[in-house]
Structure formats: structure tokens, C-alpha cells
Design a protein that fits this description.
heterodimer; A: 532 residues; alpha+beta; 4-stranded mixed β-sheet; 32% helix; globular; B: 315 residues; mainly alpha; 13 helices; 77% helix
Chain lengths: 532, 315
């Protein structure tokens, strides 16, 4: 290293240290952070839910074994840091992941945290324990987990059926908290107990969720806040107006849509707003079990009809991004870059040429302007779904598909999808972790409950396994692109776009970093403070 | 009179039994149940886990058994548990009922306070500029959707006062409470006051053409005496009916108002419970609303006799 380089590095180091010390010194303790929430969380049990309505407010109640750094916006294997685990190590063949656990950590009710709690938590998720979760949405994540063993009170080992280097990424998600053995699942839904920086105080339906500081938190000097409170406001107009009026310190997790962001910025110019990709995609679920979409050619033709840029421009003022199953770069770690993406069938920039291709397929099957294929596009009766479905219906006309909108009361949506009582569904899918293991196993793997269309191919299963076992992440990325390309060309779940949403906060809220490739991992709130 | 009251009372019980059956059946005719909805937040439906939840909540029982269990619970004041919060229904409803009751009472108060005198003024000054202005206002009250009006009020507050009059924390004292509820009450009461005003006006105009009004004037009674003592007392009878009906209808207006002003009352809670198929909450709450409605109708009928001595209920 040359002198100049060393000097620059030293200077940078001093500057960073000074910056860090300055920030650390400036941090103020106290105050209650006030959020609005879009609706009553379905429960306080993170393991039973698949919604940021639960994860965002409740993540601070818990700790994970490991977690994504809260101050780094982009989650990756490199940003995983210890939490309840002091350290971790893999055995030689990568099938055993051992965690050394912190000592002296207590649950909010004063009982000690031990390795038995780790074992209990994942046995609960695997469905192996006596106590049962009412719902278990992430069972598919742990398909490769054989068992958990303990060695004394402060060591736990996860035994995998095969090598899976990204297994730790799943454990770092906000969806993977450690639960106490001694608290039954029912109580975790209504009165959760954790080891985290905040204790649950109360939940009143349609009113509020409140959390208070855990004075015995094992991380010294944290949290800075005395608590955080979430006032439930169902009307989006009211809650955004309330934020503008200064009634709240922060908006709900990416609740501010692109059009609303303009209002917030003009009416509350002092507010800090970050527009980010959310790892929530708009996609199509196509019922492959029944005619006409049991015909793979029709599914392929449909992919050629979609003008993704039109969706992006209309629904998100040009701010959303096109991509495949994996979230595209720069925010996403694993998605296909534009030069790869445009080579995927149906993603070419010449929309008219794509549609001509689609029409050719349809005409080959006997459809035409005088004999269109009549289908129903089902979706939840919520604006974000409905609007996209209407655009899709327009696009389908270009390839001789005459579609009709079928709006479904939102509470009946999953039941309808599970019954396969639809032809084409417009759907939104959120990924908890930006890693192919969670996305592929959850949404595309045989037998997964969240694989709505039942897409199941032996060849693809083998590829899922192959990428999952790879240790060289660059090689893995190339294989993931190949898999993603195949998924799109198979019309397994045709992708429309990856959405964006904004978080806004008052300028005195400090220490919060919005993550750019997951909604679910940055809500511990232990570093957040109020500069009041 | 007492025989009439007993007859009405028995009719009330019959009505309530009929209502209970209708509520119960309608709820179960709606597609989906709480188990489906619970899985919505998990993003999938697992048939086995769903069946477990249905068993746990007693939804696997035959409908008549479920109905019997509910009625038995009602009789012994065991209203069950909310499917959503897993809290006792009583604990969920108890704090919310007074909020909606206060809001409804305040709305009704505003409606009568403005609707009745303005209706009289409009009638006695028929075809004057004042009459036209009041009629325009009343027409706008009937035409403007209350959610739109409520949002306009909120936007105006944020724009011009830099604050927003919504419920975020329970008010500290009676004055704060009055302030907090008065704006939503005015928003929802605007429609009712417009209705009352129009009805009072037409009723007054009809009464003022009666012979006894002319007689009163010819006897030298003052305008005020004629208008408010002779005319209004007779004109107010149909208005009383409307006030009674409006009291029951207010719950509909309050659903929107509670949502927009974020007031944690039962009206908004009821809609949420219906969407969540939270049967114990919906069944018991709708029964309570039915009971209140039936009681108000009964009281209005009794009030007729007080307001108009010519009305006598035969034994």
C-alpha cells in the first residue's frame, strides 16, 4: 500500500471514527416514536403471519439469532450480523450450522433465554412440537432443515439435509424471531413475549398498538426510544393528512404511494421521504389445471401481450421497475440486469413485435379478432390490484383475449385461489428475504402452499437445489438468472413489475434506514432516536 | 294504555327473535369465514390448519347448534370471544359503545338544533331570500356524501389550521371530548338537519294554512305565539317520527364519519367485524342496534301521546 493510499485510508478511518463518535454523542434518549398503521395487525405472532402489518410493529419485541444490519440499506449475506447468537460456524460439508448463544439474556417476563428456546422455535415452525401454530406460512423456507440440537444452554445446531449456504439469510429475516418455549402460541398472538428492545403493551382493534422500552435490554445503551406507538387509521387519506399535519413522526412501512408522495412533498416539504423498491412484485397467477390455460402456448402468448413500461408509467409514474422473479438490480442482489432481461421472451423493448408474436400463437390455436378467447381476470377489490387488472385486460385485447374483470372481496381472495376458482389472477407477492432460496421454494417449488398455481417441474426442482447448494455466490447468481429466465418463459407466474413505495418521517427522527430489497427486515428500531 | 304497552313489548320480543335469526343466517350466507380470512394474512390456505381453526371456534358445528349456543350465551350474558382479537366480546364492545352513543347524540342534537328552527324560519318567511338560501343549504346537506364532506373538513383544517381534528388518543376531559366529537358530529348531522329542516318547513306550511291558525291570528295573537305555540306544536309531530328514524339511521352515517375521523366507535368497528367475519362481534352488536332501534320506535310512539293529546292508545 503506497503512502498516499495509507494516508487516505487513515484519514478516512479518522473521519469515520469522528463521524461515528459524533453521531453516538449526538444520540438522545427518550421520547415515544409515533407511527400510523394502516389496519389492525392480524396478530402479534410473526411466525404465523406473512404481512408487514405484523412484522413492522412487532419486530422490536424480538431478537433473531442473526439479523440484517439495520443501518445498511441493501440486505445480502455480507450484511448479516450476530444478534442472540454471538457467533456461528458451519461444519465441513456445510450441513451443520452451529450458533454460540449469548449468556445472561432474559425474556420480557424475566425467564432466561437458552438454547432450548431456539430448538422450540424451529420445531414449532417445522410442526414437530406439541404446541402448534395456527398458521405456518414459512414452512417451505425450512424444507431442508432436519432437526435442531442443543449442547448445553448456550449452543444450538441446525442440521440440514443438504448443504445450503444461504440458510442463514432466512434466519436473518424479520420473519425469523426466536420465541420463548414457555409461552404458548395463543399467548404469542395476543401478548407476545420476546427478548427485544421493546415490550408489547397493548393492542386495541382499530385503535392502536403500543410498545414500551425494555429497560433490561441486553444491548447496552439501547434502545434510545421510550417506546413506539402505532395509531391505526384505516382511511389512507386521513392518515396521510395526519402525517402532513405533524400528528405522527413516521408513516407506516412504505404506505406512501408514488402519487401520494408528491402530495406529501408539496404539503410537508420538511418531511424526509425515501422512495424505495419494496421487493413486492405485481404478477399473474394463471390456473394451469383447467382449460384454457392448461395449454402452455396460451400462457406463453399471454406473456407477449404485457407492456411492462405502460404498467410502470400508469401505476407508479415511471418509478417502478421491470424484472423477473428475483428483484432486479441495483436494489436487488439476484435479479437479472436489463441486458439479460431484455433477452427473455416477452421482455423485448419492441412491444408491437412481442404482441405480434403473441397473436401468431393465438391465431395458430384458432383465435382471432372475430373469435377471441374469453377469460376472467380475478383480483382483490382493492385499488392497487384493480387498477393493474384493468390495464392487463386492455393489454390482453392485443392478442385476441377478451377479458372481463372479476373483483373479489379481499378476505375471500386466498380461499378462491386455493380452490383454483379462477382463470387468471392479478396478484402481489412480497419476498421476506432477497434470496433465491426463499423466493423459489416459497413461490415456485412443488408442494409449497404459497405456490398458488401449483407450478411443479422436476427439472426446475433440480435447478433450485443446485443453486441453493452453491457456495460461489457469483456462479450462483448466473444460475439464478438462468432459472429466472426459464420461470418467465414457462409463464410460471408472469411478472409485471416490482413496485416502489415511500417511507416518510419528520426531520427529528434519526437512525432509521429504509431497506431497499425487503420490507420486513429493518424494523427493530433499537437504533432510532428523536432529535427533539 | 297498559295493554297497548304490553302488546308492543311482546311485539318487540318477537321482532328481536326474528332479527336474531336473520342476522345469524345472513352472516353465514356470506362467502368465506374467519378461518379463510386468517389465512389471508398468511398468504395461503392450508385445509388441515383451516379445519383445526374451524373446530377450535365451533364453526364445524351444525348451524342450529351454533344458533342455540349463541342465544343461550345471550340469555346468560356470555357473549363469547372475538375471533380476531381473542378478547371477550363485552370487553371489545363496552368502551366503544359510549363513543358512538355520544357521537350519535351530538349529531342528533346538532340536527335538531339547526334543523327545527331553520325549518320554521324558512316556512314563516316562505319565498323570501332567506327561505331560498336555507333551502339551498338543506339541499346541499342532502346531496353531499358525508365521507366527502368529512374529508373536505379535514383538508381544510390541515391547510388552514395546520392541525387535524381526528381521534388519536382518548380526550382528557369533557371539553376536549366535546371539541373532538363536535366536528364529526356536525359533518354527519348536516344531512339529518337538512332533512329535519325540509320536513319542518313543509309541515309548518301545511299547519299554517289551517283554520285554527287563522283564528289565532284574528284573536290578535302575536306572530311568535302563532308560529311557535300554535303552529310548531302541531307541525312537530311528523318531524318527531323522522327524528326517531334518523336516530336509527345515524349508525349508517357514523360508519363513514368514524372511519374518516378515525373515531374508535362501534359503527366503524362493526364494518371491520363484518369484513373479518367476526361472528360473535357482529351478531351481538347488530342485536344491540336492533334493540336500540326497537326501543326508540317504541319511545317515539309513546311521545306521540304526550305531544298530541288527541292521540290515545286504546286498551
Amino acid at each position: 500500500m503506497g503512502y498516499l493510499t495509507r494516508a487516505a485510508a487513515l484519514g478516512l478511518g479518522v473521519a469515520m471514527l469522528a463521524g461515528y463518535a459524533g453521531t453516538a454523542l449526538a444520540q438522545k434518549d427518550g421520547g415515544v416514536l409515533k407511527f400510523y398503521h394502516r389496519g389492525t395487525p392480524p396478530s402479534g405472532s410473526i411466525h404465523e403471519e406473512a404481512t408487514n402489518s405484523t412484522v413492522s410493529p412487532y419486530m422490536g419485541v424480538f431478537n433473531n439469532l442473526v439479523m440484517y444490519r439495520q443501518d445498511v440499506a441493501k440486505n445480502s449475506l455480507d450484511t448479516i450480523v450476530p444478534d442472540l447468537a454471538e457467533s456461528w460456524s458451519w461444519n465441513g460439508d456445510g450441513t451443520e450450522l452451529t450458533f454460540k448463544l449469548r449468556q445472561g439474556v432474559e425474556w420480557h417476563d424475566g425467564k432466561p433465554f437458552t438454547s432450548a428456546d431456539v430448538k422450540c422455535t424451529w420445531e414449532l415452525v417445522l410442526g414437530k412440537s406439541k404446541a402448534k401454530l395456527r398458521k405456518n406460512p414459512r414452512k417451505a423456507w425450512y424444507k431442508n432443515l432436519e432437526e435442531i440440537t442443543t449442547n448445553g444452554d448456550h449452543e444450538a445446531t441446525f442440521h440440514l439435509k443438504r448443504r445450503q449456504p444461504a440458510f442463514i439469510a432466512l434466519l436473518a429475516s424479520g420473519y425469523s424471531p426466536v420465541y420463548p418455549c414457555h409461552v404458548p402460541p395463543k399467548k404469542m398472538r395476543t401478548n407476545p413475549i420476546g427478548t427485544g428492545p421493546f415490550k408489547f403493551v397493548s393492542l386495541k382493534q382499530n385503535e392502536h398498538v403500543k410498545f414500551t422500552k425494555n429497560d433490561n435490554y441486553w444491548k447496552e445503551g439501547k434502545p434510545h426510544l421510550d417506546g413506539h406507538e402505532w395509531t391505526i387509521i384505516k382511511s389512507r387519506a386521513t392518515r396521510v393528512l395526519a402525517f402532513i399535519a405533524g400528528e405522527f413522526d413516521m408513516t407506516f412501512n412504505v404506505d406512501v404511494t408514488v402519487p401520494l408522495l408528491k402530495d406529501v412533498r408539496s404539503q410537508a416539504p420538511h418531511a424526509v421521504c425515501e422512495l424505495v423498491t419494496t421487493n413486492v412484485s405485481y404478477n399473474l397467477i394463471v390456473n394451469q389445471d383447467n382449460p384454457p390455460f392448461d395449454n402452455a402456448d396460451i400462457r406463453k402468448a399471454m406473456v407477449f401481450a404485457i407492456d411492462r413500461q405502460a404498467f410502470i408509467d400508469i401505476l407508479a409514474d415511471g418509478e417502478a421497475v421491470a424484472g423477473g422473479a428475483m428483484m432486479p438490480p441495483p436494489s436487488g442482489v439476484w435479479g437479472m440486469p436489463p441486458e439479460v432481461l431484455e433477452k427473455v421472451a416477452g421482455y423485448g423493448p419492441d412491444i408491437e413485435a412481442n404482441r405480434a408474436e403473441g397473436r401468431k400463437i393465438m391465431e395458430g390455436l384458432g383465435y382471432g379478432p372475430d373469435k377471441p378467447l374469453e377469460v376472467k381476470v380475478s383480483t382483490r377489490n382493492i385499488a392497487v390490484y384493480r387498477d393493474a387488472a384493468v390495464i392487463l385486460i386492455d393489454h390482453l385485447k392485443h392478442i385476441h383475449i377478451a377479458a372481463e374483470l372479476d373483483t373479489v372481496e379481499t378476505s375471500n381472495w386466498h380461499a378462491k385461489v386455493a380452490r383454483k376458482d379462477y382463470m387468471v389472477g392479478l396478484n402481489l407477492t412480497g419476498s421476506g428475504v432477497d434470496d433465491p432460496d426463499s423466493n423459489f421454494y416459497e413461490n415456485y417449488s412443488c408442494g409449497s402452499q404459497r405456490n398458488y398455481t401449483g407450478y411443479c417441474k422436476e427439472e426446475m426442482e433440480a435447478l433450485f437445489e443446485k443453486q441453493s447448494m452453491m457456495t460461489d455466490q457469483e456462479e450462483r447468481r448466473k444460475l439464478v438468472w438462468e432459472i429466472d429466465k426459464k420461470l418467465q418463459e414457462d409463464a410460471a407466474r408472469p411478472m409485471i413489475m416490482h413496485s416502489k413505495g415511500a417511507n416518510c418521517w419528520q426531520p427529528y427522527v434519526k437512525g432509521f434506514v429504509t431497506h431497499v430489497n425487503s420490507l420486513y427486515n429493518n424494523w427493530r428500531l433499537e437504533d432510532v432516536w428523536l432529535d427533539k | 294504555m297498559s295493554a297497548y304497552i304490553v302488546k308492543r313489548f311482546l311485539l318487540m320480543i318477537l321482532t328481536l327473535i326474528g332479527m336474531s335469526i336473520i342476522i345469524f343466517v345472513l352472516l353465514r350466507l356470506m362467502p368465506g369465514n374467519i378461518a379463510d380470512i386468517m389465512f389471508d394474512s398468511a398468504g395461503f390456505v392450508d385445509p388441515e390448519e383451516k379445519a383445526n381453526i374451524e373446530r377450535e371456534l365451533g364453526l364445524d358445528q351444525p348451524i342450529p347448534v351454533q344458533y342455540y349456543e349463541w342465544i343461550r350465551g345471550l340469555i346468560v350474558w356470555d357473549l363469547g370471544f372475538s375471533y380476531v382479537s381473542e378478547m371477550p366480546v363485552v370487553d371489545e364492545l363496552q368502551p366503544r359503545i359510549p363513543i358512538t352513543a355520544k357521537l350519535a347524540a351530538l349529531s342528533l342534537f346538532f340536527s335538531v338544533l339547526f334543523g327545527l328552527p331553520l325549518g320554521v324560519i324558512s316556512a314563516v318567511r316562505q319565498n323570501s331570500a332567506m327561505d331560498y338560501i336555507l333551502r339551498c343549504i338543506s339541499l346541499s346537506g342532502l346531496s353531499l356524501p358525508s365521507f366527502w364532506l368529512a374529508l373536505l373538513i379535514l383538508m381544510a383544517f390541515v391547510q388552514y389550521a395546520g392541525t387535524i381534528p381526528i381521534y388519536t388518543d382518548p380526550p382528557d376531559n369533557l371539553w376536549d371530548e366535546l371539541l373532538l366529537y363536535s366536528i364529526p358530529a356536525a359533518a354527519v348531522g348536516f344531512r339529518s338537519s337538512a332533512l329535519i329542516m325540509r320536513l319542518t318547513r313543509s309541515s309548518m306550511l301545511e299547519v299554517m294554512r289551517q283554520d285554527y291558525i287563522r283564528t289565532a291570528r284574528s284573536k290578535g295573537a302575536t306572530d311568535n305565539s302563532v308560529n311557535y305555540h300554535h303552529a310548531l306544536k302541531n307541525a312537530v309531530l311528523p318531524v318527531t317520527t323522522i327524528i326517531g328514524i334518523e336516530a336509527a339511521f345515524l349508525i349508517g352515517g357514523l360508519i363513514i364519519t368514524e372511519t374518516v375521523f378515525n373515531i374508535p366507535g362501534v359503527a366503524h368497528f362493526l364494518v371491520e367485524a363484518i369484513l373479518m367475519r367476526d361472528y360473535p362481534i357482529v351478531q351481538n352488536l347488530v342485536m344491540l342496534i336492533a334493540l336500540v332501534t326497537v326501543l326508540i320506535n317504541f319511545l317515539v310512539d309513546m311521545l306521540y301521546a304526550v305531544l298530541d293529546p288527541r292521540i290515545k292508545y286504546a286498551d
